[in-house]
Amino acid sequence: MLARGLARVYSFADNRAIVPEMLAREGAARVQRLGIWRNPFYAVRSAEPATIPRDGYELVEGRVRDVATVRGRTYINFGDDWKSDFTLSLASKVRRPFDREGYSLESLKGLTIRARGWIKSYNGLMIELTHPEQIEIIDP
Question: What does the CA dihedral 91, 95, 76, 57 come to, rounded to 10 degrees?
């Protein structure tokens, strides 16, 4: 289904074994504009808040402006105003899998990344991360 563009990858923190292979198949279908990737409803959204629907499962892409940890929660910010711009958020316990795999969230600053997840509205639009596979680094 992924290779034919008939689905998006939706992964879970407790079931990550083949997510990289699934992302590769989805990516190839997206580049070829197969299936759902021809429909603007499924487009990868810019991290500009005006382009992101207020709810739903979305793929959002943009350049990381800053990464900050406040009271144990890590925020990956895509704009200068964290109260209104798009943000990724993760709890301290969720950060452990990132750290175990040598995934430095602070190193994302300045990189273009794609994130996937459910959009929430909390001090701007946000995706709550639960596992590393929700982020794809676009920059080399």
Answer: -70
What is the residue extent of each domain of the chain? Answer: 1-42, 44-137
Low-confidence ranges of the chain (pLDDT < 50): none
Q: Contact, 74 vs 104, CB < 8 A?
A: no
3-state per-residue secondary structure call for the chain: CCCCCCCCCCCECCECCCHHHHHHHHHHHHHCCCHHHHCHHHCCEECCHHHCCCCCEEEEEEECCEEEEECCEEEEECCCCCCCCCEEEECHHHHHHHHHCCCCHHHHCCCEEEEEEEEEECCCEEEECCCHHHEEECCC
Q: What is the pLDDT of residue 55?
A: 87
Question: Does the 44-137 domain belong in CATH 2.30.30.220?
Answer: no
